[in-house]
Specification:
Number of helices: 3
Number of strands: 2
Oligomer: single chain
Shape: flat
Largest sheet: 2 strands, antiparallel
Distance between the termini: 40 Å
Radius of gyration: 20 Å
């Protein structure tokens, strides 16, 4: 196991392993959040609802992404597991 050839190991850049973020949240969520809130604000002509909704959702998602950038992929699996395991 100690016979690793020279230049066999290459450093891994973290940019290759982290998700693409827009405004601190995963790209897909940012696009969906902006589209839905813009539809509420402009399409339904309710900017008093659309703008605060966007701010709250974007802020909560940015808070979650700061702790775990893969929270959108892991959250559904977490909800599918039982709260406790029978012994």
């Amino acid at each position: 196991m100690d016979d690793i050839p020279e230049n066999y190991v290459t450093p891994l850049r973290t940019s290759l392993t982290r998700p693409i973020l827009m405004a601190g949240v995963p790209r897909g969520f940012a696009i969906l959040n902006g589209t839905v809130c813009a539809a509420i604000a402009f399409g339904l002509q309710q900017p008093i609802i659309g703008a605060p909704l966007w701010i709250v959702l974007q802020g909560c998602a940015a808070w979650a992404a700061a702790r775990d950038p893969w929270f959108l992929e892991t959250w559904p699996r977490h909800l599918a597991k039982p709260i406790y395991f029978a012994s």
